[in-house]
Amino acid sequence: MENLDREKIERIVKTRKQANAYYLKKSKTYRSFVKMEAVAFENGTLSKLQKELIAVGISIIINCESCLEWHIKQALDCGATENEIIEAVEIGIEMGGGPATVSARFAMNVLEYYRTDGQEGASETPASA
Fold first, then answer.
1. Which listed residue, of 42, 61, 65, 68, carries a Cα 20 to 30 Å from 90's Cα?
2. Taking Cα atoms as reference points, which of 117, 119, 120, 49 lies closest to residue 87?
3. Hey, how many other C-beta atoms are within 10 angstroms of the C-beta on 115?
4. Between vectors from CA 90 to CA 88 and to CA 96, what angle results, nearest 5°?
5. Closest by alpha carbon to 52, among 3, 115, 119, 111?
């Protein structure tokens, strides 16, 4: 993985944590969003893992790097395998066509980051973007 992507991933984690803390204190709407997100990702008919994998595919389509970092880490924390995450990325590529391959490259680097040395960043209040 290129050092630039490693730095980008670490910057995303850091700024997400900062923004999360800031908006939790100052925004009733944000606090409501965080609560809604927690409920949406609870185990139900679909498991939290399945929901995180769906979110990975959607993140590819909407080209949201912060979403990719969050949902890949959450999926890994739920026990997702590398192959499961790759399949979710592949569904995003298929649904998004050629432009989705750009997001897929970033997803690959996030997965590599957490597989090798970036084990921090997921144990916080949920906030996907």
1. 42
2. 49
3. 13
4. 105
5. 111
CA 2: distance to chain centroid? Answer: 19
Q: Which residues contact 94 (CB under 8 A, 6 or more apart)?
A: 100
Say what angle helices 48-62 and 65-77 make with each other, to 10 degrees.
Answer: 160
- CA-to-CA distance for 77 and 85, rounded, in angstroms? 12
pLDDT, tens digit, 9 for 90 and up, residues 64-96: 999 999 999 999 999 999 999 999 999 999 998
Residues in contact with 39: Cβ distance below 8 Å, sequence separation at least 6, in sequence order: none
- 28: Cβ contacts below 8 Å, ≥ 6 apart: none
Whether the pLDDT of residue 124 is over 70: the answer is no
DSSP 61: H
Distance CA 125, CA 92 (A): 26
Distance CA 26, CA 42 (A): 25
